[in-house]
Amino acid sequence: MLAISAGGVIVWIVWVAAGFACLASGVAVVSFRNPFFSSLALIANLASLAVLYLLLSAEFVAAAQVLVYAGAVMVMFLFVTAYVGPRREPPWAGGPSWQTIGAVAAAGAIFVEIVVVIGLKAGGRLATSPSVGSVFGSPGWIGRLFLTDHLLAFEITSIVLLVAAVGGVILGSHTRRSNARVDAAGEAG
Amino acid sequence: MLGPGVAWYLGIAAFLFATGAFGVLVRRNPLIVLLSLEIMLNGANLALIAFSRHAANGAGQIFALGVMAVAAAEVCVGLGLVVAINRRRLALDVDEFSELRG
User: Fold this and answer.
1) ipTM score of the complex?
2) Class at the top of the CATH hierarchy for domain A8-90
3) What residues does each domain of chain B span?
4) I need a labelling partner for A119 at 20 to 30 A (CA). Which of A94, A133, A160, A167 fits?
């Protein structure tokens, strides 16, 4: 349902631009040969997704997306890509061709399935959404939800992050000694 | 709600999820497999936030923030694995890592 107003037209223009950038950069991430360029394309993808979140009046999630994802996670990705060094890999070569055909079939099946289910089951009801106040999606509102209704999820999230940090440290540390042990075991065996 | 309805956002989310699944299945570089996983998670996040807006309920946004935390944890462990593999001078190719196949 099109709202014919100046604001509606502007929102449509922003949506088309952000949605196209989102889809194009998503395809670019999968198809680039160099992981460095794939990472840069994923940053563009995250930024255009943040614009879509803003259009859905989720301001805090959009800010967290830019800060956490594009700011912290992608810096780590770029650092590791630079550490590992440039390794070019032809995007579609490699692996038997039935693998590629199966992947295309699986991805197409997922897409068609989702679109058909949305169209059949919820198409009419999704056309209009209720209007929300300006508080919806603001940081204070999210914080209140986190510390009242979803306190357990908040605490579990912190535990998950702690465990992942410990795992990263263990994976990254003292590999030289364990390497020596593995080599000695290989020579003995 | 100005602009396109929620179904349009869900279409973008479906396409992103399918693109990421294709990348995970086809690509052999573990770094790009991780990037494709991020695309899948972001497609799911977009659907969560679209439904959160549609229902005017904050639980979807809380769930999306949880997904972002899980994605950060996954990147931390995944990149640790990539660095550990690279230190042992093994080839960065997910098809080569089949020792646990049984």
Assistant:
1) 0.90
2) mainly alpha
3) 30-89
4) A133
